[in-house]
């Protein structure tokens, strides 16, 4: 016979098929519900944590792949930006640097107007700090630098708002705050031809436009906005690195900003959502695991006679306890393992599944003007799988202790009195 005996009997109880007894059938039904709930709870938590990991990855690799980790500015027009770029790039904690000129403007096409952030770039250096090149065609940068018909690169969201396509023309309007006589109603206006339209799948599609450095300088006039964008080795240390570089420059007029000011709220929202959703789904797993309590309590009631017979045959209190712990542990183990497998499958396919549903029904569940990205990302972490499956097994095991303890206290004489 399989040893140890308590485990053997517990596994037999868990796998036995019960027929002809209404109470036994009810026990089997509730046991199945407990296991199903645990499977779904574990699977759901793995999928949810993978989606939160996906949002975190997209923030790091897509949004902050296009936007810099930090930018150092100076309003003075006398700065040698090329020399400053080389100076900052020489720092051991700075991976790369590129000059940029940022201007807040309005884009107009016919009767449509939308605000946008215009970045004047140098194509030779911007690729060092930004992955924007991955979303552009091969002719985008040459068209951008055209001096006869200056080009502009737009995000897809801006292009859709203005109803423009590649090759179309639009105007950029920048208020002239330095106009003579203090006339705030004047503005600088420049025409551009759309060189390319990028689709990063992120919120940047709704706000970012690129022009050449010279065109951005002309739009800015005597205003500021010029600076050096930095990509640092450790994104989370960007603020500290930026402040250290500002102190090292030791010249008036320099100031800076980092990604935590522009996208820090988004990062915090993702982390908070991950923690809150993880807690809620963990409670679902806990509820499903503790359904094992009701299952085993009913099993104990149903098996009073069997318990009494085992006790009269010499089974100890510890052996009876281990018998029902083994049964509950099997339910938890099977539920957690099957739930883990289902969760892994869901995490690997949820992105394609949602995309397929969007395509089939002609709807878009996520839009980049509301959410950070316009698709549902997912990144499976095996450490999360191990944590969730382990939590499911542990909670199930803890849930077996009370009914197993009740079973161990059954008195043979009292249980057999009415048999």
From TrEMBL:
The chain crosses the membrane at residues 26-52, 276-300, 320-338, 385-405. Residues 31-222 form the MacB-like periplasmic core domain. The keyword Cell membrane applies. Its main location: membrane. The keyword Transferase does not apply. Residues 279-412 form the ABC3 transporter permease C-terminal domain. It is a multi-pass membrane protein. Keywords: Cell membrane, Lipoprotein, Membrane, Transmembrane, Transmembrane helix, Transport. InterPro entries: ABC3_permease_C, Lipoprotein-release_system, LolCE_TM, MacB_PCD. It comes from the Bacteria. It is found in: Cell membrane. Belongs to the ABC-4 integral membrane protein family. LolC/E subfamily. This is Lipoprotein-releasing ABC transporter permease subunit.
